[in-house]
Structures are given as C-alpha cells and as structure tokens.
Amino acid sequence: MKNFFLAFSLIFSILLSSACVDKSANSGTATTGDGTGDIKVGVYGDLTGQTSSFGQSTINGIRLAVDEINAAGGVSGRKITLVSEDDQGRPEQATTVVQKLVNQDKVSAILGEVASTNSLAAAPVAQGARIPMITPSSTNPKVTEVGDYISRVCFIDPFQGSTMAKFAAKSLNAKTAAILGDVNSDYSKGLTQFFEQEFTKNGGQVVTKEAYTQNDPDFKAQLTKIRNLNPDVIYIPGYYGQVGIIARQARELGMNMPLLGGDGWDSPELWKLGGESLKNSYISNHYSAENPAPEIQNFVKAYQAKYNTVPDSLAALAYDAAKVLADAIRRAGGTDSAKLKDAINQTRDFKGVTGTITLDASRNAIKPAVVLELNPSASKFAFKETIYPEGMSAPTDATTSNTNMMMNTNQISNANMMNSNMTNSTQMNSNMTNSTSNINSTMNANR
Fold first, then answer.
1. 113 preceded by cis ω (within 30°)?
2. How confident is the model at residue 103 (pLDDT cuts 50, 70, 90)?
3. What totals of helices (H) and strands (E) does the chain contain, helices first?
4. What does DSSP say about strands 355-359 and 350-352: parallel, antiparallel, or unpaired?
5. What pLDDT shows up at residue 361?
6. What HEC string does 163-178 produce?
7. Residue 15 three-state SS
8. Tens digits of residue pLDDT in 378-399
9. What is the DSSP secondary structure assignment for residue 388, as one 8-state letter?
10. Of the four listed, 203, 321, 346, 381, which is most buried by Cβ atoms within 10 Å?
C-alpha cells in the first residue's frame, strides 16, 4: 500500500509538472509549436541600470504595439505574449537573460537591446539557437554582422555619424570639432569614427579626441583640454547619463559652443541632468514627435494616454520593431524559425512611425534621420531638418507622408538641400558593398 501511494504521488507530480510547462508568462495560455496558442516573444533590456530610461521606453513601446495587435485579433488569430528580462545594462547579463529566454522560456522571437554592446553580447545566443532577434535601436554595424537571424529597424552609425558631421559643416559652418566619447562603448566608438571621417571629408578638422568611461563622475579635465583648443563644436557620442553632466560642466567652464550628439541623448532624464546647459545643442534621431503625419500623431496620443509622457525615439523604434515582427509572423504563416527569419529579412516598405522601413541585404533599415534642436526650457526636442541617405528623395507631400519630413519655414527648398547633403557619402557606400538594394548608403541610435 505504501508503494502504491508513493507511485500515485509520483505520477500525480509528473502530470502536474507537465501541465505547467511552457505557459505564457502573461496570460497563462500555452504556447505551442503547431500554429495554435499564444506566440511567446522575449524582450530584454536595461530596466534598473544606468540606461534604464532606454529599457523602460523600449518595453513601453513594445507593450503598446502588442496591446494594439492583440486588441485587433492578434496575428492570424493568435495573441502575442511577452516575457521580459532585465539585463541591468550589463553585457554579461544580456547574454544570460537571452539564454534564459531561448532555453527556458522557449520564445519564438526576441526584441532587444538598445545598447549596441549588450546586443553584441546577446546576439550570438539568438543566432546559435536560430531564434530571430530584432533590435529596435542598436546602431553599431557589427550587430547584424553576427548572423542572418539578427536584424534591426533603425539606421546605423555610419549614417548617423555622417549626418551630424554634415550638419556641423554645412548648417553650422563649423571648421573645427572636438570629440568626447565613451572609450568602452561600441556605440560611442562607432559614431566617433564616422563623424570624424565625414567631417574631415567636408573640409573640417578634428582638433582632439578625448575619452571617458560610463562610471566617470567628472569630465572637467577632458573639457579643459578641449576649451584650450577652442573648437567650433563639440561632438559627444554618448548616453544621456553622462551627457547631462558634461553639458553642465562645459558651460561652467565658459564653453558656449554648440554641443552635438546622437540618439543616445534622447531620454526624459537628460533634462533633469543637463537643464539649461543643454541650450545650443543638437542631436541626430529617428523621428520627431512634432511631425504632423496622422500615423505619428496617433502613436503619440496613444502612448501619452497609456504612459502619461511623450514617446521618445526609443519607444517609437520599439513600437515599430514589434509591429514589424507581427507582420513577419503573418507573412511567414507562423513561427517556424527559418521561415520567420526570412520573412523579417524580406521586410520592404513597412509603414512605421519612424519612417518607411526596408531592410537591406545586411538586415539594416534604410531610412532618413532627423536633426533636432534641444529646448531645455520646454524639455523638448524641436525639429530642425531631415537628412536622407543617398538615393532616397524627400517626399512630395511633407505633411501626410510618414518619413519624418517637415519643412522648416526658415529653410528654402529644404528637400533639395538635404539631397545635396548626401552626395559625398562615399564612405557609407563602401561599407555596404553586400547590399543588393538600389540604395547603397549605410545607416544606424540604443546607446
């Protein structure tokens, strides 16, 4: 009898365990491999580390997209459920959480990360397991070079870096520039390289390149060296946590020249850290919340209603990444990994809030960039101009086309100027020799 009860208990335990395997973390509905049940998607990012604003914006954008998709009936009748993981902004933790998403949670696809260094740490795990991974906003070119299961919906650093170099040389008439970058960040190193190449090509001179690390509390030694050289502009390809402090310390040292940066500046926390010191600063970015295009304004309103804040570019890119994934699942007819990977990589002319998204042969998005001017008194980024990759023309209808094009009333024929701004980008063309697209430019921010 004792043996009977032991056997019965063992069988009952096994049955109970089996009933709990592979349950959705959000809905309790099993995810199956036969084209039925929920579609489990992994999300990873920094939710508690130094770039936690990036991670929170990203997961907010993804959740908004998934809520809309599910409310409309899901993907071919199947709902998407999310399994989110916090990598604390650390590359080694990014590797660990993606291993969990792949091996334990058995996700069908992965969305993340923002910081290129963290994406580079995690991408080999997804590639090795043949699980498609879309990064919304990692801009370092090396990320998608990991393999064909890795793609992105943002432009890349060669384009973003050259965009600000062109803006500095042509719109600000800068002849000299200093660069202050994070020596340990792949994002910062990439932008430094491409800004310097393009600025020099446009006749400018980089008078010095100074370095810091993400944990540095003080930047006055580097800034003093820069001040002594009196450059026309300072390019700071870093993240908001350091940029805000750098801006304050630069102004305290009497340095009033324009400060330039990239999408890594885009965070509500930047205004708290930098305050009025951020006047006379400009960044390259993926979209403008001021764009009157209906699809952008609908997104902004929905995001504000849900999260009570204006969506930054990280939220917009994450929203687009989730929508691109859902569209690819539909076109693939399910979540078979090989078919889904091919469907993602074949994304063409997808209408997103950050522009029309087409992935090239290297799985990078071909799209324009916007230059935004910082307005710290209003805590907002004001649209300045749009710069297009070579071969892409400005739309004819600037108010209804979703390409982030808005004519500045102080500019004459801005579209023609932006096209001419891209005629010399031969370096970007050489970086994209594997592209089968007619648009040969290379492009991207995370951070």
1. yes
2. very high
3. 14, 15
4. antiparallel
5. 97
6. HHHHHHHHHCCCCEEE
7. helix
8. 999 999 999 888 777 776 554 4
9. P
10. 321
Distance CA 174, CA 168 (A): 5
Q: Which amino acid is at 424?
A: N
Q: Which amino acid, 99?
A: Q
Rg of the chain in Å (alpha carbons): 23
CB 112 within 8 A of CB 69: no
Residue of 138, 148, 225 whose CA lies nearest to 185: 138
Query: Which tokens in the block code for residue 302?
Result: 């929905």
- 279, two tokens: 């006047």
pLDDT band at 414 (very low <50, low <70, confident <90, very high): very low
The answer to whether the beta carbons of residues 76 and 9 sit under 8 Å apart is no
Closest C-alpha to 167, from 207, 138, 210, 204: 204
H or E stretch covering 341:
helix 337-345
Q: Residue-wise over 184-205: b if at least 16 C-beta within 10 A, else e?
A: ebbbbbbbbbbbbbbbebbebe
Task: For residue 159, give the amino acid letter.
Answer: F
Domains of the chain as residue ranges with CATH: 31-155+297-366 (3.40.50.2300), 157-285+368-430 (3.40.50.2300)
| Residue-averaged pLDDT of the chain | 85
Both tokens of residue 54? 């990036």
pLDDT tens-digit map of 38-69 = 999 999 999 999 999 999 999 999 999 999 99
Nearest residue to 392 via CA among 427, 350, 356, 352 = 356
Q: Give the bridge partners for 179, in sequence order.
A: 209, 235
Distance CA 38, CA 335 (A): 11
